[in-house]
């Protein structure tokens, strides 16, 4: 679902203008385009900038001082709905049909490991097992899982995820949870047990981490 409705009308118009002008626009150009005062544009830009939704660069000028131009950041581009799940569903169906269930599981496991690899540098900075668990939960929350750590004992803990970010895909492909399990196993370098699953009518997804992480 798009996050655009959570912005005010003027900010929606501003980020839409920047979407349609990928090279960026100046305050004056935005003011003229949207028929909003420069002061109002600056206020919106400041708010959106603090939220990490826009970025600014200097535009070279042939005369006078360089002007600052604003464009959408990668996070800002994510405000606009994209049909990732639709494309992923087609890809999964193709793999399942052409290569079979075993190859699909191998594919999902490999994707989970690749996902974990993107965050390896962050995990490497964490010295203790507890720190690694907290960082893993933080990474999952950034990805949309709404995750937290539940410490059972010194050698056993769980990560609770209140959201399944692949819910529709996992409903149609029951083995899709292999991606989450592979992701966490590679991230924490530990054995993971899926104790509860949202797709299987659980209240949340519960991933048990046995023993110490490396």
Task: Provide a compact summary of the structure.
By secondary structure, the chain is an alpha+beta fold. The protein is built from ten helices and six strands; from the N terminus they run αααββαααααββααββ.
Write the layout of secondary structure elements.
Elements: H1 9-20, H2 27-34, H3 38-50, E1 54-59, E2 67-72, H4 74-77, H5 84-99, H6 101-117, H7 120-124, H8 129-143, E3 147-153, E4 156-161, H9 167-172, H10 177-188, E5 191-196, E6 205-210
Antiparallel strand pairs: 1-2, 3-4, 4-6, 5-6
Helix pairs in contact: 2-3, 5-6, 6-10
Describe, in plain words, how this protein is organized in 3D:
By secondary structure, this protein is α+β, with helices and mostly antiparallel strands. It is 50% helix and 17% strand. It has 10 helices and 6 strands, in the order H-H-H-E-E-H-H-H-H-H-E-E-H-H-E-E. It has helices at residues 9-20, 27-34, 38-50, 74-77, 84-99, 101-117, 120-124, 129-143, 167-172, 177-188; strands spanning 54-59, 67-72, 147-153, 156-161, 191-196, 205-210. The strands form 2 sheets. The protein has a 4-stranded antiparallel beta sheet, with helices on one face. The protein has a two-stranded antiparallel sheet with strand order 1-2. Helix 2 (27-34) packs across helix 3. The longest helix has 17 residues, at 101-117. The radius of gyration is 22 Å and the shape is elongated. The two termini are 37 Å apart. The model has no long low-confidence stretch (mean pLDDT 85).
């Amino acid at each position: 679902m798009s996050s655009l409705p959570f912005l005010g009308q003027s900010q929606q118009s501003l980020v839409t203008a920047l979407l349609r002008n990928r090279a960026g626009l100046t305050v004056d150009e935005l003011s003229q385009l949207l028929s909003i005062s420069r002061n109002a544009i600056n206020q919106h830009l400041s708010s959106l900038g603090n939220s990490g939704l826009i970025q600014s660069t200097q535009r070279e000028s042939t005369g006078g001082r360089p002007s600052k131009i604003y464009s959408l950041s990668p996070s800002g581009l994510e405000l606009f709905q994209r049909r990732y799940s639709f494309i992923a569903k087609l890809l999964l169906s193709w793999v399942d049909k052409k290569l079979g269930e075993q190859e699909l599981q191998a594919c999902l496991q490999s994707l989970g490991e690749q996902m974990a690899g993107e965050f390896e540098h962050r995990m490497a900075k964490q010295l203790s097992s507890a720190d690694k668990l907290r960082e893993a939960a933080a990474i999952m929350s950034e990805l949309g899982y709404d995750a937290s750590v539940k410490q059972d004992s010194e050698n056993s803990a769980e990560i609770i995820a209140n959201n399944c970010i692949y819910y529709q895909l996992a409903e149609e492909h029951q083995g899709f949870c292999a991606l989450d399990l592979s992701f966490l196993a590679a991230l924490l370098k530990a054995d993971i047990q899926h104790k509860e699953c949202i797709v299987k009518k659980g209240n949340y997804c519960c991933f048990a981490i046995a023993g110490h992480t490396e």
